[in-house]
Amino acid sequence: TTPADMTSPEEEVERNVLKVPDFWATPPPDVRGAYVIPLPEALPEYQDVKKNFLSSVGYQPQIVSISRVQNEAKYKAYMLELNERKKKSSMSSTVERVLYHGTAPDVVENINQSGFNRSYAGKNATYFGRGMYFAKNARYSAQNTYSPPNWQGNKYIYQARVIVGEYTKGKPGIVEPPPKNPSNAAIRYDSVVNDEEDP
């Protein structure tokens, strides 16, 4: 091994987390930001998403299409944050989860380009605080409250990787997770949930 080939564990991790998945499609040269790829039904990725969605939605809705949202800048920022949370958290098995998020048709493009943004908080529900809401079961995200249909009757629901980190129960009115220790407001929980035992 030459000195040029030697990298520290930290550099190796950073190099890996900043690499986009091999299965991502190459966007056209004129595309900036998010690249939305409609998935063919024969693709295993399509079938996996479909199976997971139908198993948790509780009924058999017609699936119009399934698309992959590729946003390289947001993906890299997410992976760096995920790596940092894993290093700091004592709950490594629950730092990240695959969850669902239903949204209104007019917000879809904003989410694709800018990610899940708390500026949209309060649009549909704020019972556990003002923030972005995700559900482990698609049946919640499929409710009209969270995913109002467009003029054609179609809904938009995301299956997303979410950094939940260390969480506590939320409550109405809060705008950020509470401190882990009331005497130190600088160190806060990463997220809030409806039920700590069964979020």
Structural account:
- The protein is of the alpha+beta class.
- The protein is built from five helices and eight strands, in the order H-E-H-E-H-E-H-H-E-E-E-E-E.
- A two-stranded antiparallel ribbon has the order 1-2.
- A hairpin with a 2-residue loop joins strand 6 and strand 7 (184-188).
- The radius of gyration is 19 Å and the shape is globular.
Sheet/helix structural class? alpha+beta
Note poorly predicted spans: none
Largest sheet: 2 strands, antiparallel
- Spell out the helices and strands N to C: HEHEHEHHEEEEE
The helix count comes to 5
Strand order of the largest sheet: 1-2
Specify Rg, calculated over alpha carbons. Answer: 19 Å
Estimate the global geometry from the Cα principal axes: globular
The average pLDDT score comes to 86
C-alpha end-to-end distance: 48 Å
Strand share of the residues?
15-25%
The quaternary state of the protein chains shown equals single chain
Count every beta strand, where a strand is a DSSP E run of 2 or more residues. Answer: 8
Helix content: 25-40%
